Structures are given as C-alpha cells and as structure tokens.
C-alpha cells in the first residue's frame, strides 16, 4: 500500500509541514496567531574555517537565494 503523500512525491516531513499549516490556518484568529508564531522557524548556521566561526546566516534566506540562483541558471 502506497501512502498518498508518498505517491504525491512528498517526504514525510514535508507532508507534516503542509498538514500543520492547514490546521493552523483553519483556527480562529486568537489561537491561529499563537499557533502560527509557534510554527515559525529561525535556523541559523555558520561555516567554521581554521578553528574560527564565520558569519551567522539565516537558513531560510540562504535557501531562498539558492533557489533563485538555480531558477536563473535554467
């Protein structure tokens, strides 16, 4: 038996993210705002070279830039 999310080409994590976003959007205003704040992610990373930490970068920003660069190269 193939799961619907798998046959749609989604990973399980992506499926959960889509389902969670749908549930958050279906809530009334008060609980919806609180749930949306909990659903936001703020991940940062830094490259280390020669034992020194580089600049911290927001993962979402870097990911969006990579997607845009990939789209331009096509």
From TrEMBL:
SUPFAM superfamilies according to UniProt: Epsilon subunit of mitochondrial F1F0-ATP synthase (SSF48690)
GO cellular component assignments: mitochondrial inner membrane; proton-transporting ATP synthase complex
GO molecular function terms noted in the UniProt entry: proton-transporting ATP synthase activity, rotational mechanism
GO BP annotations listed: proton motive force-driven mitochondrial ATP synthesis
Domain of life: Eukaryota
Alphabetical list of Pfam families matching this protein: ATP-synt_Eps (PF04627)
Family that this chain belongs to: Belongs to the eukaryotic ATPase epsilon family.
Protein name per the record: Mitochondrial ATP synthase epsilon chain domain-containing protein
Lineage, top ranks: Eukaryota, Fungi, Dikarya, Ascomycota, Pezizomycotina
